[in-house]
Amino acid sequence: MRTAFFNAVTALCAADRRVMLITADLGFGHVERFAARFSEQFLNVGVAEQNLAGVATGLALSGRHVFVYSIGNFPTMRCLEQVRNDICYHRAHVTIVTSGGGLSYGSLGMSHHVTEDLAIMRSLPNMTVIAPGDPIEAGAATLSAARLDGPCYLRLARAGDRNVHGESIDFTIGRAVVVRRGDDVTLISTGGMLDAAVRVADRLRAERSLSVRVLSMHTVKPLDEHAISAAARETRGVVTLEEHSIVGGLGGAVAEVIADRTLSVPFARVALPSTFISVAGSQEYLRSAYGLSDDTIAETIQRIAAVHSALGGSWRGGVG
Amino acid sequence: MISDARASTLARKVRERVLRMSSRARSSHIGSCFSAAELLAVLYGEWLRVDPREPQAPARDRFILSKGHACAALYAVLAERGFFPVEWLDSFYQDGSRLPGHVTVGVPGVEVSTGALGHGLAIGAGMALAGKRDNALYRVVVMLSDGECDEGATWEAALLAPHHRLDNLTAIVDYNKIQSLGWVKDILDLEPLADKWRAFGWSVREIDGHDVDAIRRALGATPFEQGRPSCLVAHTIKGKGVSFMEGQLLWHYRAPDQEELARALAELHPE
After folding, report:
1. Rounded Cα distance, B88 and A14, in Å
2. Are A58 and B118 a contacting pair at CB < 8 A?
3. Does residue A318 carry a pLDDT above 70?
């Protein structure tokens, strides 16, 4: 996703000199070429994230669209007040781009596990929150963020991840992408779990004859409430999937929609427990150890499908 | 250029407005407003190239009151300069008012919202950097409190501005020596403050922040050095202008009652 982002931001900068990329001394292997080509549109503020956010605001209030780039927790939590008061309150045209979403940097330890960002960022007024599902979405999201007229948080997953979509998609901020059609259960995925979501859905279809609709909910805010309502209406259960804490992320956001719209549908969240992970481990290892294995996802979907069957299909007799 | 008398008159008007606003609203921070009154009067009275008829003019100078708790003084000077009707000041801090207790955008003439300390200098540095890269001629001034110099974020920005040779940026420290819970020297000593800014790469001058002529001369001399941001350490007195408020921590918090208001107003008009 990182390469897709840098390709997109390079294209934006080439087309418009008001676009800038600034970093707090991160992005090795990517920013060098960019800095050499666009010296007037690049800035490294040093290891200083509060300054990163503040300077980005000043640049944005002076007519620029600023892409801020760093690793997950640093340009979000370290400078949360600057993000809130400076970037969001002023509706500054700043896109905060982070790499390492979820457990991408698993072995680097807790400091580099990006597991609360979606919850925190989506709670901020004026903030758009996007977690692309694959490199194609990441590139499209970058271009779309440039057309917004306000702040955006763009959460990238690991480097070298594969494309889930075909060559191009119809990407619109706030509108989920249907990746697999299905009538039994809807699996709503955000961020880098999309690959696993599609893999599990295909497996359940082949092995269990379960028809799983897969939505890539790349935009966590504003959420595609229409797609959630349709899923609740048209399928027999909804499961959310994210590489993020169970508290307040995609699952929480979808639960809010289900509650607010009194949708009557079996529902479950597959996410990380609200805990610190203090062991080393690859992304694959930690995903498996902390509840994001393919088997866990598959079992959750089957359990939700079974709720409906156990009720003899009468579930939908409720409100909504 | 306006006369010293006019600048002093504007500073007195600002104090008078602040007193009435604070008394009516039962709001805090009079002392912080009074220490900055002459600085704001010279800035808005003569130095800043701003136009109330076109507050967003691209070529305008940018002023950021990073010590956003002194908003009453900023609102007062903006109203006196005609950015909005002085009648608005009567609503300060009250239900539904567009003038809340810390500086906010949306008020004509206000460049940046502040209130959480240590944010202003970074934003100002970003604006100054944009100005440099655009070859624009506008100047950026950020006024900080001494308490704000406790904030690490202030020094992150202080490190960046000289590195990028932002001589279109001026930081003014309203050094009134009293912060939220007491004397600066007792809570977290900043001395040697001017040397700290120098060590970070700023060109620094120290002045009496209540001497309008000294303020005028210092601002007129910016940038103090080509290629360096300027820092004006303005030695001021918290609560300056009203004898029973001067140097008193109490007036960081207290709003004057009717009797105190009358006494204070009388002091501002000794004739």
Report:
1. 46
2. no
3. no
Q: How far apart are alpha carbons A171 and A151 in whole angstroms?
A: 18
Per the structure block, which two tokens stand in for A235?
């399928």
pLDDT exceeds cutoff 90 at A161: no
- Is the domain defined by B4-268 classed in CATH 3.40.50.970? yes
Tell me the domain boundaries of chain A: 2-155, 177-317
- How far does Cα B147 stand from its chain's mean position? 13
* DSSP string for A227-271: HHHHHHHHSS-EEEEEEEETTTSHHHHHHHHHHHTT----EEEEE
Quote the minimal CA–CA distance from B32 to chain A in Å: 22
DSSP class of B255? P
User: Does the beta-carbon distance from A57 to B123 stay under 8 Å?
Assistant: yes
Buried b (16+ CB within 10 A) or exposed e, A279-298: eebebeebbeebebbeebbb
Q: Is B262 on the interface with A (CB under 8 A)?
A: no
Find chain A residues with C-beta within 8 A of B127's C-beta.
58-59, 61-62
Q: How far is A7 from chain B (nearest CA, A)?
A: 24
- Which contacts of A30-34 are long-range, i.e. CB under 8 A and separated by 24 or more positions? A30/A2, A30/A3, A30/A6, A31/A69, A34/A6, A34/A9, A34/A10
Partner A contacted by B210 (CB < 8 A): no
Dist. CA B103–CA B97, nearest whole Å: 13
Alpha-carbon span A250 to A229, nearest angstrom: 15
Q: Please, which residues bridge with residue A38 across strands?
A: none
Residues of A assigned a catalytic role? 49
Q: Which residue of B has its CA nearest to A59?
A: B126
Class of A2-155 per CATH? alpha beta
Q: What is the pLDDT of residues A22-45, one digit of tens each?
A: 999 999 988 999 999 999 999 999
- List the one residue out of A49, A53, A1 whose CA is nearest residue A25: A49
Q: What is the DSSP letter of B137?
A: -
Out of A46, A56, A86, the one facing B119 most closely (by C-beta) is A86
Q: Any CB–CB contact under 8 A between B133 and chain A?
A: yes
> For residues A100 and A191, what is the distance between their CA atoms, to the nearest angstrom?
11
> B155 to chain A: nearest residue by CA?
A51
Q: DSSP assignment of A74-105, as one string?
A: TTTTTTHHIIIIIIITTT--EEEEEE--BTTT
pLDDT at A38: 97
CA gap A157, A113 in Å, rounded: 11
Q: Which CATH architecture has domain A177-317?
A: 3-Layer(aba) Sandwich (3.40)
How distant is the Cα of B243 from the closest Cα of chain A, in angstroms? 36
User: Which tens digit of pLDDT belongs to each residue from A102-144?
Assistant: 999 988 999 999 999 999 999 999 999 999 999 999 999 999 9
Interface predicted TM-score of the whole assembly (ipTM), two decimals: 0.95
Element at A129 (helix H, strand E): strand A128-130
Closest approach of B112 to chain A, Cα-based (Å):
8
CB pairs under 8 A between A and B: 88
Instruction: Work out the angle between the directed axes of helices A49-60 and B152-163 (0-180°, nearest 10).
Output: 60
CB contact under 8 A, A48 and B156: yes
Query: In 3D, which of B170, B184, B172 has the Cα closest to residue B238?
Result: B184
